[in-house]
Write a structure and sequence with these properties.
This protein is of the alpha/beta class. The chain has one domain: Rossmann fold (3-Layer(aba) Sandwich), CATH 3.40.50.150. The protein is about 40% helix and about 20% strand. It has 6 helices and 7 strands. Strands 3-2-1-4-5-7-6 form a 7-stranded mixed β-sheet, with helices on both faces. Strand 4 (about 110-115), helix 5 (about 125-150) and strand 5 (about 150-160) form a beta-alpha-beta unit. About 35% of the residues are buried.
Length: about 230
């Protein structure tokens, strides 16, 4: 009976934020997670620059743009196509690929105030593997911070709980003055995800990001003329 009750509570909870997103014209129920995180930790300020990793369908980019205002800039990155969003630039690419990282660095052209990552792995069904891949994606977000986050900047990442979480937090503590693990109210009660909010970036001391290699994108070959 307890399992049925917990499932009912989770479904009602999920339905509430789904309907609220539709009502308020947010692209995703996940928008409310970031809104709640910002309300609690003060992530954004007017005029700031933000990079949003794993941006599709654009719910977090939408919130970030609202909070940084017209004078702020938001760049979203995702493997999937994202429908245009006024005031936001999108890169379609894999942030784990050097070419995408180089495109992001070129577009930013300097340093940013906030890095966001709502990236999640394709679920394999083996939780230990999914957890490990989640942490790996978070470390790519840390790599972005090492390259382009301003001193005193902030990072928000989603990660699946598991035995590798503490090691990930240790990496963050080397770089940020404050590291908090948080579950916003908009998260599903049964979810294994948590959000890690890292504030006051101290710089990538004793960390040297790997050298990026720009690969040439070869044109796809198509035969012309008769059959061979």
């Amino acid at each position: 009976m307890s399992d049925l009750h917990d499932r009912w509570v989770a479904e009602r909870h999920n339905e509430y934020y789904y309907k609220l997103a539709k009502k308020l014209d947010y692209r995703s129920r996940a928008s409310f997670k970031l809104l709640q995180i910002d309300d609690r930790f003060g992530i954004f300020k007017e005029g700031q620059s933000v990079v949003d990793l794993g941006a599709c369908p654009g719910g977090w980019s939408q919130v970030a743009k609202e909070r940084v205002g017209e004078d702020g800039t938001v760049i979203g990155v995702d493997l999937r196509y994202i429908h245009p969003l006024e005031g936001v630039s999108f890169i379609i690419g894999d942030i784990t690929d050097d070419n995408t990282m180089i495109r992001l660095l070129d577009m930013v052209g300097g340093k940013v105030d906030v890095v966001l990552s709502d990236m999640a792995p394709n679920i394999a069904g083996a939780y230990s593997m999914d957890h490990a891949r989640s942490v790996e994606l978070c470390m790519y977000a840390v790599d972005v911070c090492d390259r382009i986050l301003k001193n005193h900047g902030k990072l928000v990442t989603k990660v699946f709980m598991g035995d590798l979480l503490e090691g990930y937090l240790d990496e963050l503590r080397k770089r940020f003055e404050n590291v908090y693990v948080h579950s916003p109210k908009a998260s599903r009660p049964t979810s294994s995800e948590v959000y890690v909010i890292s504030t006051n970036f101290l710089g990538a001391h004793n960390v040297k990001p790997k050298k990026l290699v720009r690969e040439e994108v070869k044109a796809e070959f198509s035969a012309k003329g008769g059959n061979f």
